[in-house]
Amino acid sequence: MNTKMTFRRNIKNQNRRGLSTPRKFLAIGLAVFFLLALVLQDFSFKFAIRPFFYAMEPLLKTKKDLKNWWEGKRAGFAEKNNIPCLKPEKLDAEFSNKLKAISYQLFVVVACGQIIPEKILNMPKLGSINIHYSLLPKYRGASPVESAILNGDTETGVTIQKMTYEMDAGDIIAQEKVDILPGETAPELRKRLIKIGGELLVKTLPDFTEGKTKPVPQNGSLASVCKKIKKEDGLIDLEGDSQKNYNKFRAYALWPRTFFFKNGKRIIITDATLENGKFIIKKIIPEGGKEIDYRN
Predict the structure, then answer these.
(1) Helix, strand, coil fractions of the chain, as percent rounded to 5
(2) Half-sphere exposure of 221 (CA within 13 A, CB side)
(3) Tally of structural domains, the chain
(4) Is residue 77 pLDDT above 80, yes or no?
């Protein structure tokens, strides 16, 4: 679908119906090009929303290939759709002044990876909203997808919240529950949640920007917090609980991956399953080697 033509068509339809003036919003984060594609391609908007695209550096800065992939994706999407793309090293006063000069109505934040100053959050007329991949107030923090799998949850979801300076404690604008599929890994689940979150945003933005949505405060007494993942979190005990080991394998399938040590060498698990209640390792990468079958 030609997203430029779609956007122009939305503008023409809006002008023909005499609806609200176009909104300008800034998208901040890692997964935003998926999200913006849905916004640009959607024909059902009551008005057109013109995005201004900005993506942070990848969270996995040590992974050169992944970094190049993100760079190519975001730059290509922005260029194709004629969307400006800023890449500041810091969310400092200089960047804040640039945003202020453009007069955005709304900021949409997805997987930013940095703490956004309160001054920037409160800058737009409609404030800032965030797509968070859990059913808030559960799993506030940096690793909601991994945490849900680690804890053996069978259900998670997407929350669109108003942003406050307190982490993931904003009023809830919309939520959608999602089943976690048996054997599903964090990358697989996150991919589904990104799509669902984008679709939920498309449904939510028109009423929210027209003041027809009443956000609901979170129940802080039910809140739980998930930590930022560290490389050492991937270590497993082969004699430990099989279900917990399998959950960890699924949760850390992208990074840091699960591993154990043998004769002082780090061995990465690349393929595993749970069979008859037992954690079965299928493939591994020995330190300094290539992927091989574990039984060999």
Answers:
(1) 35, 25, 40
(2) 0
(3) 2
(4) no
Residue whose entry in the numeric block shows the structure tokens 């940095």: 114
Measured between alpha carbons, how far is 118 from 97 in angstroms, rounded to an integer?
A: 14
Strand 278-286's sheet: what is its strand order? Answer: 258-262, 265-275, 278-286, 292-293
Q: Which segments of the chain does DSSP mark as H helices, in order? A: 3-17, 32-41, 64-80, 93-102, 118-121, 144-150, 186-209, 242-251
Residues 204 and 289 in one domain: no
Q: What angle do CA 11, 42, 74 make, to 5 degrees?
A: 95
10-29 average pLDDT score: 51
Domain endpoint, select from 195, 222, 249: 222
Claim: this prediction has a pTM higher than 0.85: no
- Strands 85-86 vs 49-54: parallel, antiparallel or unpaired: parallel
Q: Is residue 153 very low, low, confident or very high in pLDDT (cuts 50, 70, 90)?
A: very high
| Cα gap 192→194, rounded to integer Å | 5
Q: Say whether 171 sits in a helix, a strand or coil.
A: coil
The Cα diameter of the chain in Å comes to 72
Mean pLDDT of the region 192-207: 88
Are 209 and 270 part of one and the same domain? no
Residue 276's domain comprises 231-293
Rg from Cα positions in the chain: 21
Strands (E), 150-275: 155-162, 172-179, 225-226, 258-262, 265-275
